[in-house]
Amino acid sequence: QVQLVESGGGLVQAGGSLRLSCAASGSIFRINAMAWYRQAPGKQRELVAATSSGGTTNYADSVKGRFTISRDNGKNTVYLQMNSLKPEDTAVYLCNAGVATVTTIGPIRGDYWGQGTQVTVSS
User: Fold this and answer.
1) Confidence band (pLDDT; 50, 70, 90) for 19?
2) What is the DSSP letter of 89?
3) Is 12 helix (H, G, I), strand (E, B) or coil?
4) Following DSSP, what letter does each residue of 50-63 receive, concatenated?
5) What residues pair up with 117 in beta bridges, in sequence order?
6) Residue 71 and residue 23 in contact, taking contact as beta carbons nearer than 8 Å
7) 47-73 in b/e burial notation, b at 16+ Cβ within 10 A?
8) From the CB of residue 109, how many other CB atoms can be counted at a distance below 10 Å?
């Protein structure tokens, strides 16, 4: 099994910054894409940013130029640097990873989620 543990959320004033981290652990053979999603109360979960194993990135239009996703493959960790935060960025931020796990019959791909970290931006 694989565990994803997020950290770095909190309360910040509009215009401030936060850095989220998500560390993967477990029987990992290979981590493919890693991504951050967010879900605000009463809204659907939305993709914020994603990065491939090779470092290619993509972002939601609403965060382009303000958020930066990065990863440290040696630490199985993905980061989300969030700058110029706005009240509308308030949400639970969830880490997602496509992971091939080690099994007795070879690597098996799966999709894993963290439990989420709350980000609250006050106006």
Assistant:
1) very high
2) G
3) strand
4) EE-TT--EEE-GGG
5) 93
6) no
7) ebbbbeeeeeeebeeebeeebbbebee
8) 11
